[in-house]
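Bumping with the actual sequence this time:
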Amino acid sequence: MTKSSNIIFHIIGCLLFLSFPILLSPHPSLSLDILSNHFTQRDLITYFLGLCFFYCSYYFLIPRFYFEKNYVLYVLGIATFLFTLIFLPRLLVKIDLNEYYQFTKKAPPKSFLFEIKHHVLLFFGILFASLALKINDRWKKSSSEKLISELSYLKAQINPHFLFNTLNSIYSLAIEKSEHTATAIVTLSGMMRYTISETVEKFVSLEKEMNYINSYIELQKLRLGDTAIVNYIVDGDISDKTIAPLVLIPFIENAFKHGVNPEETSQIDIQISVSDTYLYLHVFNLKVPHNVQTQLRTGYGLENGRSQLKILYPNKHTIKIENKNLSFTVSIKINLS
């Protein structure tokens, strides 16, 4: 909910709440005459004080005293508002016995407690409503902060891992005195600029994310040369769409990490298709032998990728993994809307 719509929602809610003295009156037609009806005047003051208590409780008493476990001041604040809500309307608006009987057609209550029962129940209803809403908001904020912290941790794991692999690739090009070394360094520089300046946002332009993926694949092609067959296809219109940054790269990186070996036939197929509301990623790689240390780390990037999808696209994605004897396939569908 935007800030402006939230303000409008509160204004409508307050007006509706202040209309209750008229809507719930035994004689609504008489209650509409606010200037002469003392019952309506008193109730309006009471409900207005109730609104003031709700916002004071929500924004001040609960966060300042209840959450800080300063219960004495919290109870004193509640008691002050309770006595104000009960006695102030009666001090400001006087109602004589004849007027009471004329409006209610009943004799005045003999007990003061019976007379104020409705307003006491109203007060405690407001108290528990403000407390429940504030606790719920705090729980949501805590959950959101936890997810953000977890997501930052996952990104921190992905970026150094990628940088380490890519620097190794550029080092290999430099050893071979490849003419592509300078191009690889410039490409890596652009990618790191993207990860530092853009990925702090929850969502980025799909075009920028695709440029990042394109650069990554080009770097891998430079490193691998003719030792691997890399088929990369992008279909669909990627303009005017957004996506969570770095959410696809772990699955693509996994294919290059575990699907390439200079001594074996290596093949990697990557297809990204974009429709009006969905993005499809299909990554296929042939399995190749690796040393024991590499095998122990298998799945590290995939788990990070899965965790990011769960956090950023809950109930808006599907992932299917086919782990066969000679190949490994990942298929992902993300709802971008």
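The tokens above came from a reply further down the thread. Residues 291-298 have pLDDT under 50 and may be disordered.
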